[in-house]
Amino acid sequence: MLGAMDTVLIEGLQVDAIIGVYEFEKGYQQRLFVDIELGCDISGAAREDNLDLTLNYAAVSERLREYAAASRFQLIETLAERFSELLQKEFGAPWLRLTIRKPGAVAEARSVGVRIERGARKSD
Ligand SMILES: Nc1nc2c(c(=O)[nH]1)N=C([C@H](O)[C@@H](O)CO)CN2
């Protein structure tokens, strides 16, 4: 099969960041949960059984946690967009869907968040 678009997944990744609109949110880190789907043709990696030929979800997770820990934004929209740019530039993801949840932000909701989709999913 040529140009398949498979998905590498990360679900419920915990990242800590200073994030929020209100003054009281600017003095401490809050925990966010991130789900990511990364478009990737995994067939070469599977054929060769070689991690270098796919997206390394451990490396992606570590990089996003590191980026979030050093960040300081008001909106989770901004963090989502920055994550997306990082994933495209540093990991070459041609397509991604990313969800950030901020549990506890609305007491009456289990969690609130944003979801973005960027890039193009190749059709085979
Ligand atoms: N769409 C958004 N709405 C809100 C955000 C946000 O980042 N995106 N942030 C806040 C506050 O920081 C809130 O989380 C504090 O409880 C409110 N609405």
What is the N-to-C order of secondary-structure elements (H for helix, E for strand)? EEHHEHEE
Which consecutive residue ranges, at least 5 long each, have pLDDT under 50?
Answer: none
What global shape is seen? elongated
Q: What is the CATH domain class?
A: Alpha Beta
Radius of gyration: 16 Å
The CATH architecture is 2-Layer Sandwich
The hetero compounds bound to this protein are: the ligand Nc1nc2c(c(=O)[nH]1)N=C([C@H](O)[C@@H](O)CO)CN2
Mean pLDDT: 95
Q: What class do helices, strands and sheet pairing give?
A: alpha+beta
Number of domains: 1
Q: Major beta sheet, specifics?
A: 5 strands, mixed
What is the tally of helical segments?
3
Q: Kindly report the name of the CATH homologous superfamily.
A: GTP cyclohydrolase I, C-terminal domain/NADPH-dependent 7-cyano-7-deazaguanine reductase, N-terminal domain
Query: Can you tell me the CATH topology?
Result: GTP Cyclohydrolase I, domain 2
Instruction: Estimate the helix proportion, in percent.
Output: 25-40%
GO molecular function, one term: dihydroneopterin aldolase activity
GO biological process, one term: folic acid biosynthetic process
Family: Belongs to the DHNA family.
Keywords: Folate biosynthesis, Isomerase, Lyase
Structure description:
InterPro entries: Dihydroneopterin_aldolase, FolB_dom, GTP-CH-I_C/QueF. Catalyzes the conversion of 7,8-dihydroneopterin to 6-hydroxymethyl-7,8-dihydropterin. The model has no long low-confidence stretch (mean pLDDT 95). The chain has one domain (6-119): GTP Cyclohydrolase I, domain 2, CATH 3.30.1130.10. It contains three helices and five strands; from the N terminus they run ββααβαββ. 29% of the residues lie in helices and 35% in strands. With 124 residues, it is an alpha+beta fold. The relative contact order is 0.23. A five-stranded mixed beta sheet has the order 3-1-2-4-5.
